[in-house]
């Protein structure tokens, strides 16, 4: 006979395993005021990271990314897309304000 405690653990295990099987899109953390002090070369490096993250999101969506999953992630692709697009826009604005070259 299955009691409530056993049933709870069965559902908990099923939920944990189901989470492992679903797509996890990398999500970039929000920037704070300290990013205003980045140099042009640091901004260029941040842009490269953002573009790599954007490419990883595309590979995950296509099912071709077999690399390690990110630490910060979203289960929803639109959230990940918005975060990376926001980061790219902020980097571009900072590079423009500092007259950086690409």
Task: Give an overview in words.
The protein has 102 residues and is mostly helical. Helices cover 61% and strands 4% of the residues. It has one domain. The N and C termini lie far apart (67 Å). A two-stranded antiparallel sheet has the order 1-2.
- Let me know the largest β-sheet: 2 strands, antiparallel
Q: Give the fraction of residues assigned to helices.
A: 55-70%
Strand order of the largest sheet: 1-2
Q: Strand pairing plus helix content: what structural class?
A: mainly alpha
* Average pLDDT over all residues: 81
**Tally of alpha and pi helices:** 3
Total strand segments = 2
What fraction strand? under 5%
SSE ordering:
HEHEH
Low-confidence stretches: 7-20
Rg over CA atoms: 19 Å
How many individual domains? Answer: 1
From the N-terminal CA to the C-terminal CA, the straight-line distance is 67 Å
